[in-house]
């Protein structure tokens, strides 16, 4: 049951016909893992904490660098050289003390990645490298989890939602592991609001899915062009040859 403080804090979303107290209680019970607390993870984590997600697992192995502050809006200049995961936890609890936040100051891989994904209801991939993206995708598909994947570089952003039973494939169908080309903010640059737009929309899809509303993105790849502010949508199709989801047709949906 929501108490008075929660009713007041979340009143503007509780007013929504499609939302209401039942949806709020689902958020309160939810566990969300955010992998990467940079330009995508910052707005995603802020909106999810503000909206009242029960538990946020916050994974990042980096310390705050001066070059991060142009787009990573969770942090302040005084925070330089400190671990991002604990900085993020501090800021999010200052924003909303009703949430629980768990800082994971390590690069999630292997068993630690599997454990973290196993503990979460929804996973946000806000990471900045293809190796991590593929590892997250595989673990999510293996465990039947919902993955909300975002990325941005230059003026371009992209967003996709991958849900069991993965009828439209997975991240590896779109970007086969062997064909991966590495391009990231460190080498190519990015404008803050471009990466912020994508991270914000990752939070929006998370809230909708947790509240029981359908995700309009399921099975689609959304591409954002920050120069023209145009969006394109591509229908995803499962690759029968995909080494990750190709053999997983028989998922039972909860
Ligand atoms: Zn696949």
Question: Could you give a quick summary of the protein structure above?
Answer:
The protein has 254 residues and is α/β, with parallel strands linked by helices. The protein is built from ten helices and eight strands.
Total of domains: 1
What is the count of β-strands? Answer: 8
Helical content band: 25-40%
Give the mean pLDDT. Answer: 93
Q: What is the CATH superfamily label?
A: NAD(P)-binding Rossmann-like Domain
End-to-end distance: 24 Å
Helical element count?
Answer: 10
Q: Which descriptor suits the 3D outline? A: globular
How would you sum up the major sheet? 8 strands, mixed
CATH architecture designation: 3-Layer(aba) Sandwich
Ligands bound here?
zinc ion
Structural class: alpha/beta
Question: In CATH terms, what is the fold-level topology?
Answer: Rossmann fold
Compute the gyration radius: what is it? Answer: 17 Å
What are the salient characteristics of this protein?
254 residues, alpha/beta, Rossmann fold, 8-stranded mixed beta sheet, 10 helices, binds zinc ion
List the topology elements.
Layout: H1 4-9, H2 11-14, H3 20-29, E1 31-35, H4 41-51, E2 55-59, H5 84-95, E3 100-104, H6 110-118, E4 122-125, H7 130-143, E5 146-153, E6 156-162, H8 171-174, H9 185-188, H10 192-211, E7 220-225, E8 230-235
Parallel strand pairs: 1-2, 1-4, 2-3, 4-5
Antiparallel strand pairs: 5-6, 6-7, 7-8
């Amino acid at each position: 049951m929501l108490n008075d403080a929660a009713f007041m804090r979340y009143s503007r979303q509780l007013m929504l016909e499609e939302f209401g107290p039942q949806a709020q209680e689902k958020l309160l019970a939810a566990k969300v893992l955010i992998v990467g607390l940079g330009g995508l993870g910052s707005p995603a984590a802020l909106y999810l904490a503000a909206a009242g997600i029960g538990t946020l697992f916050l994974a990042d192995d980096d310390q705050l660098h001066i070059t991060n502050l142009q787009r990573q809006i969770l942090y302040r200049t005084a925070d330089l050289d400190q671990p991002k995961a604990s900085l993020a936890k501090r800021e999010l609890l200052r924003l909303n003390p009703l949430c629980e936040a768990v800082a994971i100051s390590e690069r999630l891989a292997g068993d630690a990645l599997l454990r973290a994904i196993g503990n979460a209801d929804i996973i946000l991939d806000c990471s900045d490298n293809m190796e991590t993206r593929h590892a997250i995708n595989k673990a999510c598909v293996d465990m039947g989890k919902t993955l909300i994947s975002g990325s941005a570089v230059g003026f371009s952003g992209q967003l996709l939602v991958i849900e069991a039973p993965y009828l439209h494939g997975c991240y590896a169908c779109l970007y086969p592991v062997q064909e991966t080309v590495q391009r990231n903010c460190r080498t190519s640059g990015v404008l803050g609001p471009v990466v912020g737009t994508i991270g914000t929309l990752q939070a929006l899809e998370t809230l909708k899915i947790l509240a029981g509303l359908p995700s309009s993105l399921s099975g689609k790849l959304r591409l954002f062009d920050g120069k023209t502010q145009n969006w394109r949508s591509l229908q995803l199709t499962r690759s029968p040859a995909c080494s990750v989801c190709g053999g997983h047709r028989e998922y039972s949906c909860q």
